[in-house]
Write a structure and sequence with these properties.
This protein has one helix and no strands. The protein is mainly α. It is flat, with a radius of gyration of 13 Å. The termini are far apart. Bound molecules: flavin-adenine dinucleotide. Flavin-adenine dinucleotide binds next to helix 1.
């Protein structure tokens, strides 16, 4: 038997810095932006439907390129 107890994000240290959703995940979409300019988010800690290694890695690439765009602007 495998007991699935669920997941609880540990984003409290950032709650005064960036918006969290109602479940405590960093509010974001597929662009990996947060509501704070210059702060990006990737992986399981953000709002998303599928939390797997493959989606976390994709987020990393998206967030890094968003950070490059931010620095270039
Ligand atoms: C039991 C289980 C089985 C899974 N099986 C699969 C599977 O078979 N296939 C699959 O694709 N995915 C699987 N997943 C999901 C996968 O592990 C995650 O989606 C993926 O690891 C998310 O990557 P991440 O980098 O966002 O977060 P994590 O891999 O959780 O990395 C976050 C890192 O941040 C560190 N950290 C946390 N707080 C701080 C802090 N304050 N300062 C510094 N560092 C900090 C943590 O120690 C950790 O190393 C599984 C998850 C679980 C729990």
């Amino acid at each position: 038997m495998f007991v699935a107890i669920g997941l609880v994000p540990q984003n409290e240290p950032f709650e005064n810095l960036i918006s969290l959703d109602e479940r405590g995940y960093v509010a974001s979409d597929e662009r990996c932006l947060t509501n704070a300019s210059g702060i990006f988010v990737a992986g399981d800690c953000r709002t998303k439907r599928i939390r797997q290694v493959s989606t976390a890695i994709a987020d990393g690439a998206v967030a890094a390129l968003a950070a490059c765009d931010y620095l270039d602007a």
